[in-house]
Each structure stands twice: as structure tokens, then as C-alpha cells.
Amino acid sequence: MPYRMLGFSPEDDPERWHRLRCFADREQGVRLSHALYVYPVLLLLLYFTTTIFQDHPYWIWAMVSVIVFALGLRVVILVRFDSIYQKDPRLWRLLLALTVLLIAAFCGVLAAAVIFTYGFDSWVYSLVIAWVAGITAGAVISFTPNALLGRIQVCSVFFPIILTGLWLGTAHGYAFAFSSVIFAVFLFVQGDRLNTAYWKQLVDRDREATINRELETAKKSAETANRAKTQFLANMSHEIRTPMHGILGMVQLLQHSGVNPQQSDYLRLLHGSAKDLLRVLNDILDLSKIEAGKLALEAIPFSPGRVTEDVAAVLSTQAHDKQVELRIAVSPTVPAFVLGDPVRLKQVLLNLVANALKFTDQGYVELSVEAGPVFGGHADLTFHVRDTGIGIPAAQQRDIFEAFAQVDGSVTRRHGGTGLGLSISAQLVELMRGRIELISEPGKGSDFFFTLHLPCETIGAEPAGDAAPSDPGRPLKILLAEDNSLNQIVAVRLLSKHGHHVHVVPNGREAIAAVESGHFDLILMDNQMPELCGIEATQLLRGNGCALPIVGISANALLGDRQRFLDAGMDGYVAKPFHAEELYAEIRRCLQASRMPLQ
Ligand code: ADP
After folding, report:
1. Which residues, 6 or more positions from 124, have their beta carbon under 8 angstroms from its beta carbon?
2. Quick one: pLDDT band at residue 370, thresholds 50, 70, 90?
3. How far is the CA of 412 from the centre of ligand 1 (A)?
4. Cα-to-centroid distance, 355 and ligand 1 (Å)
5. What is the pLDDT of residue 585?
């Protein structure tokens, strides 16, 4: 059988073999059903164009009856493929072979009888030749899935014909027998070639389908695992951010509670460690958000020059401590304002410049921004972060953009870091439709750069982040709905330090009751609270006609939270843990938006 040549046998994989064989048999059945129309037509043709049935009534009719019976049997076998094949595939094949043998043999005998009766000079002979050639060639194609049946067919048809030719013994007879042999051999060879090609294609297709099935399963399980990971990170973010908020807040309060210098030093270290922990947490969260496709970028007006300066300002102390010169260079061609996401751009630049400072012990670190000509209202801004530090070997230059990748293990021990910064930065720049590239030489330094194609903003836009947050002004009456006692203390202290009055309730239901019975300027609404969560409470309050500004607080820093909060009717949103400045900026924004009188 050709499957042996294909490097696959039934013993290797019986289940697969059975599946393929079943497919081939069914297909053979379908192919043969076409032949069912051919035989009756031929018989009718003989009946109407010749007198053979009248001239030889007995045995010709007997043969025709056998052919018709075998055709009927084949119809039954094909129609009942499912039931017979399921019980016994061998029986089905045997029955099929029997009908093939019967039909072919009797067709052959019929043809031979016609030649014998009419001789080679009659037109009936030509008709028979055309018929035999046609049905056997067609049969070879029908029997492609099973070469044996094809051979049975060819032999059964040609055997009586060749015998007749030889029996007649004339020159015509021998020539006829000889050409029939050649034709039969040709059909044998063709049948084998078709059969081999058919099985090869079938096995290849099956292999491909198996690979696709496996890939599909692997893809599905990877997606499930990824979803579980994102969900886990979102949950962890909530669980860790809530106590982190408490820790950072309490440390801030402790620092201002008259501690001695040594305690203040400890608190500074504690604060630093807590912030480091928060940074790692934020990195992991960012990565999971990007991977889950849940990170959407903002498009607001901002000044690229201002962002560059802000980055330098944040890292200037670090540069000063390391005695490394931190330079910034903003080309005069850079537009005053562009549309984009200043927070994410700052995050990328902060990471690149912080890395440059981390890996540079002498020389300088330079952050520069240049712009190409404005075209169609857009400008190409190219940011470079160059340093004269240790550089990165060529072999590692591609890998460092992978998550958790570092040039060598000792880096973590000496400089700390998780190996996530570049991966996040690269993905953020990709989201901004740019690509971070790197030119670096060990011992000489590195140049990380990327180009962003951003729309220019000409109307007197305010650079994002310029509004001085600080305090909203006059003392406010604030209703705080928060169930966590530590967070309650932190928020109350932060707010009351600036003279605001804070009334605390532990859940949404009590918040609604408090609004009904008291007078407030603003509500700070945590989301995850027992009995009634912040979103539901806000919906009920808005339903009752309450127009107070509501600032949502969430420990779930996943994308979509802000929108969910705003959709519920809140005016603003801060994610825990927040700085006093962030909270005040949001309060101020919400008060302005709601046109509440400010001092
Ligand atoms: P982390 O700095 O937290 O380890 P990053 O993804 O930001 O993670 O950086 C990955 C690695 O790339 C670093 O550990 C360091 O080996 C290498 N690297 C990044 N920036 C520089 C640089 N400016 N000079 C030399 N090596 C760098």
C-alpha cells in the first residue's frame, strides 16, 4: 500500500489510519455514485442503437440483469455507508469489491460478446471500443483512493475482451488483444500514480489539520492562562495597593509628627523602600495592562520641552549625587504644544534617563528632543537619551527589550531593578506608533532613541500637569466613604491638615444617608466597600438628584476603572495610593468643573 512509502503505517497510529481510511472510503463511495449514472445510460444506448438484445435474448439479458442487480447492490452499499461501515468496515469494502467485480466482469463479457457477434468491421465494434476505453479510464479515477479496486475493474473488463481477441485469432483479433493489453497496463500505472498522490495529499492534509488543532488548543490555553494572570495581577494590585496606601500615608504623617533625627532617617529609608516596592508593583501592572491590551493612551495637548525639563528635574538629584552631568537639549524647531500622552511619554523618558544615570559613572547623560518640519499638521519628534556609561554588548542589544531581561545577573545585585523598564518603555513607544532603537558600544556609552509622529497643537493650549494642584483653597466639608480604617486615618489627616472637615462613613449606604441629612461640598468615594459599593452608591445619589462633586477612589489601577467611575456619575478619580498633590489636583478639578465657588 502507498502509505508504506509515505512513512506512515497503520501500526504506527491505528486511530489515525482508521480515520484516513474511513475518509478515503467515503470519498470513494461519492466518486462511484457518479459512475452509477453511466452504466444505465450505456445499457440504454446499446438497447436502442443495436439489436443485440433481440438477437441474443437469453444470455445477453442474463448478463444485463446481473449488471443491473450489481448496480442496485452498489446503491444500497453507498446509501447505507454509515450503518454498515460503523459495524464492520471490512464488510463494506468486501461488498463494494463484489459489486465492482460483478459489474466490471459482466461489462467485459458483454463487450466481448458484442465483438464476437459483430466482428471488427462493424460500427458496433467502434462503439464498444469507445465504451470500454471510457468506462475503464473513468473507473481508474473513481478508484483513486483504493488502487486494488481499480485493478480489479481493469482486469475484469479487459480479460474477456483480450481472450476474445485471441480466440478470434485473426490479425485484427491479435492487434485488438495487444492494444487492449497496452491500454490496461497504462491504466494500471496511471491508477498507481493517482493513488500515491491521493494518499500523500490526504496524509499531509491530516498532518496539517492535526498541527492546526494542536496550535488552536495551545493558543486557547495560553489565552486562558494569560487572562488568569491579568486577573490575578488586577486582584493583587488591589490587595497590595490598599495597604501600600496606608503605609505610605502613615509614613508621611509620622515624618511630620515631631520625630527625632534618627527616627526621621529611618522613616526616610522606609518611605524610599515603600516607594520602590510601589514602583515594582506599578511596573508589573503596566506590563499586564499592555499585554491585556487594556492600556489606552491619552491625546491631550502638552509641551514636549516641558516634559523634557520635568524629567531632568526629577532625576537631577540622582545625577548630582553620582557627579554625572545631566544635560537637556530641546531644538528650537520643536513645536510648543503637541497632542499626545505626556504621562506615558514622561514614564518612558524617566526610565531611559534613570537607566542612563544608573549605568554611567562618569561623563554625561543627555536628553534631547529634535523635530522635523511640520507637515500636514504633524511633526516628527525624535527623542535621544545618550550616555557615556558602560554600554551594552551587541549580542544583548535586542534581548534587553524583553521583559525581565538584564545584561548580566550581577546588574540586579549592584544596581537593583527588575528588567521590566525597557520592556514597558518599548511597548509604550510602540503604542505611540514609534520604535525604540539603540546604538551602543561597551565602554563608550549608549544612545536610546525613538521618533513619534504627533499632531501639533496651535490653539493656546495649557500644558498638561501645569495646573498647580496644592490645596483647593477654602476649607471644605468633605464626606469620605471608606471602609478601611487605616486609609480612613490617612485621608482624614491629609485633608484636615489643610483645614478641611471630614466626615467618615464606612459604606455606600451610610454615605447616601449622610448626604440626605448633612451639608457637604464634596464626596470622596472608595469603590470596594461592604453593603453598597461606591459605584452603586453614586448611581443612587445621582438618581436622587444629588449634584455634589464625587471623586472616586480605587485600588484597582486597571484601565477602564476611570471610565466605569465616570459612567456611574462620578466627576473624578484617583487611584490608591495617591499623593496629597494628586488628590488635591483632582478635587480642585472637580470643584471647578462643577462650578462650585472657590475662594
Ligand atoms: P532594569 O533597569 O530595571 O534592570 P530595564 O529593562 O530598564 O530594567 O533594563 C534592562 C537592562 O538593560 C539593564 O539591567 C541593563 O543591563 C541594560 N541597560 C539598560 N539601559 C542601559 C544603559 N543606558 N547602559 C547600559 N546598560 C543598560
Report:
1. 50, 52, 114, 118
2. very high
3. 10
4. 6
5. 79
